[in-house]
């Protein structure tokens, strides 16, 4: 069985070979490979293809000038890291062409990508890596406007800074509530890593405060490791409320900072 690296390399090489084997198509539909989306998957794919074949025409379609990474953003929330450390700029990608527009449609038959300004770009091969987004219809009371009051911070950037600033403004003795969703979701240990970094900040700066985790699950990723660390480093500071004890949030009221569960309401500072 081939290794994962060999398999990925083979797929990428086959894409490059297919493009190079059809110069008449490539000339008509430059660029050869279009990658839509500049997150971890899209940016890594574009760079890997270009590294395999410098003559391969690769275009990355991404409206933003830089990608703000979620990994390590919890350190920003805890005041241990600046938000600028999370930024990875696309203008450092060398000879990968960058189109700073949003892709809105794909015509697979004609092999064209439609941009937000109405123009089309042709391709020989297409990679779609648009990423994930929040479902604002999933939780009653929570919508896009509510994120300005009750940040989710699942995307690094403005939401990260808002949560950091809210923690800094909260008086010592306040209550922080973190709602962890049911599975599946991206990065299963994420909420508990975030809880750990928030607890680190509270212990250092607001030691009379408390962090409550309302969890829609009765078990979570790396639970024994997290709970052992919480007991050692932050005794009495973190309270985990599992699903069976009323941890699932069913509704929120951002204006009052209230989270509703099947067992009662919780109010956060």
């Amino acid at each position: 069985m081939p290794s994962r690296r060999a398999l990925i390399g083979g797929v990428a090489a086959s894409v490059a070979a297919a493009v190079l084997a059809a110069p008449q198509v490539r000339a008509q539909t430059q660029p050869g490979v279009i990658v839509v989306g500049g997150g971890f998957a899209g940016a890594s794919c574009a760079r890997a293809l270009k590294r395999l074949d410098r003559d391969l025409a690769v275009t990355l379609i991404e409206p933003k000038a830089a990608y703000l990474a979620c990994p390590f953003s919890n350190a920003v929330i805890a005041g241990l890291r600046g938000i600028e450390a999370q930024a990875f700029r696309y203008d450092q990608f060398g000879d990968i062409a960058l189109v700073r527009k949003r892709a809105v449609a794909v015509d697979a038959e004609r092999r064209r990508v439609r941009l937000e300004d109405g123009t089309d770009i042709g391709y020989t091969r297409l990679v779609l890596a648009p990423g994930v987004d929040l479902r604002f219809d999933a939780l009653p009371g929570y919508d896009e406007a509510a994120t300005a009051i009750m940040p989710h911070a699942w995307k690094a950037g403005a939401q990260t800074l808002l949560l950091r600033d809210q923690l800094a403004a909260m008086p010592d003795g306040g209550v922080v509530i973190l709602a962890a969703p049911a599975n599946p979701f991206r990065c299963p240990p994420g909420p508990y890593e975030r809880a750990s970094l928030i607890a680190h900040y509270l212990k250092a700066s607001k030691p009379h405060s408390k962090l409550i985790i309302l969890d829609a699950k009765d078990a979570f990723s790396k639970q024994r490791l997290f709970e052992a660390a919480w007991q050692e480093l932050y005794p009495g500071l973190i309270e985990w409320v599992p699903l069976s004890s009323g941890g699932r949030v069913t509704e929120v009221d951002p204006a009052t900072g209230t989270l509703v569960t099947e067992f009662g309401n919780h109010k956060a500072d």
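The chain has seven helices and 15 strands. Residues 7 and 86 are 30 Å apart (CA to CA).
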